[in-house]
Write a structure and sequence with these properties.
This protein has 225 residues and is of the alpha/beta class. It is built from 8 helices and 7 strands. It has a 7-stranded mixed sheet, with helices on both faces. The chain is globular, with a radius of gyration of 16 Å. It binds S-adenosylmethionine. S-adenosylmethionine binds next to helix 1 and helix 3.
Length: 225
């Protein structure tokens, strides 16, 4: 089954699951997601006053980690789901993170604006990922860093996850179909090696790849040429 990735369907799906998103994410990742995201951000080497944008920021867990690791960074989060953003805004008690509702395939920023761009578990949901990658490249400063994090190798452990996750989600939510979508989109998502090729075609150079939990989760850290 090919998942429907039209922007309206994706937006509706995330608006529907926003309230329980963090809770279910924690359960489905057996509590590892926060640790992995923390490691990824720590390894980026963000400095005070760097400008960093988190794309498809959802409920703001990555932006909050960035703030914790480098409180003087200038952090922006962008997402097109109003309900996901509302949760991010509630967590933003210091008001240091700027949140905007928008589509990452059409970013309202000038060329060469950011030192870092991050996207976690986002690109997989986008009907036109090529356009998103081009936009990320455009808004990054020369030598700026792009960190992409998502599911990695489709190995035995990953297949086990595909069976467990929607059933677990079904126990805790009345929206099992949204989590079936997650698994379907995961199955057709390119491998980390193919993603690196796709990013390279748009001008990025691989700096480092990091793999977590038996390579089920992978991050690719790329530099703008
Ligand atoms: C699986 S969630 C990931 C949220 C967060 N980054 C995380 O790691 O938990 C995917 C997010 O991407 C957003 N999204 C999908 N397509 C988008 C687009 N074209 N522009 C902006 N946001 C988008 C959805 O609204 C959703 O909040």
């Amino acid at each position: 089954m090919t998942p429907d990735k039209s922007p309206q369907t994706i937006k509706t799906t995330f608006n529907l699951i926003a309230e329980k998103y963090d809770f279910i994410n924690n359960i489905m990742s057996f509590g590892t997601q926060n640790y992995i995201k923390h490691q990824c951000i720590k390894n980026l080497g963000i400095r005070p006053h760097d400008r960093i944008i988190d794309l498809c920021c959802g409920t703001g867990d990555l932006t909050e980690i960035i703030l914790k690791i480098e409180p003087k960074a200038q952090i922006t989060g962008i997402d097109f789901s109003e309900n996901m953003l509302n949760i991010a805004k509630k967590k933003n008690i210091t008001r240091k993170i700027q949140y905007f509702e928008g589509d990452i395939t059409n970013l309202p920023y000038e060329d060469n604006s950011f030192d870092f761009a991050t996207i976690s578990f986002g690109l997989r949901n986008i009907a036109n990922p090529e356009k998103a990658i081009e936009e990320i490249y455009r808004i990054l400063k020369p030598k700026g860093t792009f960190m992409h994090l998502d599911f990695g190798e489709k190995n035995f452990v990953s297949k086990f996850f595909d069976i467990i996750a929607p059933n677990l989600a079904g126990v805790f939510t009345d929206n099992k179909s949204a989590y079936n979508y997650l698994i379907e989109s995961k199955k057709i998502f390119p491998s980390p090696d193919d993603l690196i090729k796709d990013f390279s075609k748009k001008g990025f150079v691989l700096k480092k790849r990091e793999d977590y939990i038996f390579h089920v989760i992978s991050s690719q850290i790329m530099t703008k040429n």
